[in-house]
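Revision sheet: structure tokens.
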Amino acid sequence: MNNLEKLKKAVNDAEFDALLLVSAVNRLYATGFSSSSGYVLITPRDAFFITDSRYIEAARAVVSGAEVLLQTAEDKPAAILNRLLAGAEVRTLAIEESSLTYSEFLAFSSALKAELVKSDGLVDGLRNVKSEAELAAMIETQRIAEKAFLRLLPELSRDLTEKQVANRLLFHMLDCGADDKSFDTIAVSSANSSRPHGVPSDEKLTQGFLTIDFGAKKNGWVSDTTRTVYIGGAGKPSDEERRVYDTVLQAQLAGIAAIRAGVTGQEVDGAAREVIKNAGYGEYFGHGFGHGLGLEVHEALAASVNVKTPLPEGGVISAEPGIYLPGRFGVRIEDVVYVEKDGCRDITELGKELIVL
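Predicted:
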């Protein structure tokens, strides 16, 4: 069953008559076609993709399972949608409430001849569970990012700035086959590494930890990985630096060991958090253990303190505990795992032992 068929079935089982997709990522999920504008209308029996002249030829070549309709200056989207709504006898139309601004909602409300209702995360729920084909696409993207990181490692030295590290990694990801980066690379060293989402600066690398958080994008699918290496030169990590690194690694392994279908995000986070707390660094782990990813780098699934939702079989989440000592240094190690019935599969192949350069 392809994604359009899954969506039709979900609409058939819902309390509304049809679903309208306006966000680029959900249009991509539904049709497999990426564009900067367009609309996807889904009823229990039919699906329609509406786009303009910029994309019509490509859409007709790619999209299957949905009728592709041309939007023109004379035949505006609202007019096309209203004809389709009338033909399908749609009275209640679900919208992506989290993707529309208030002004867009008002515009749709006044233009469309149907009652607008919330979709209540219907698409997110479907996207939370990856098919084998979707998982394979994510693994392909992950391998591109990993290959790029391995190319970068021998280039790292104190002659580079944090920005240059980020830029070189982006070059390598593109050169290895990525379509783009999945987010702005984080490359922060020494004292800057204590900032979980620090921005690469013009400062050159100095002795200490270098945390690199990076991801590739390929055919719409994203990866997300963090590795922390040690820029040593003639120096070596201190006992405390090694202790912090080892604590983060053990916390990550404990969290991954807790992952299986039916376990809550809170339980997974707690398994990792307990390791860090017992080592005396509990106050320095401020974010959650992980987040969902797939077509976006942050999707609906989560593993953090307050998440009591069970993880579904087929879910994909990151595993990224960290310890951040303000003004001194930080360590984060991040893999991506696939949730299975009795455990999980780590789809990240990069080693996790501390690399000293």
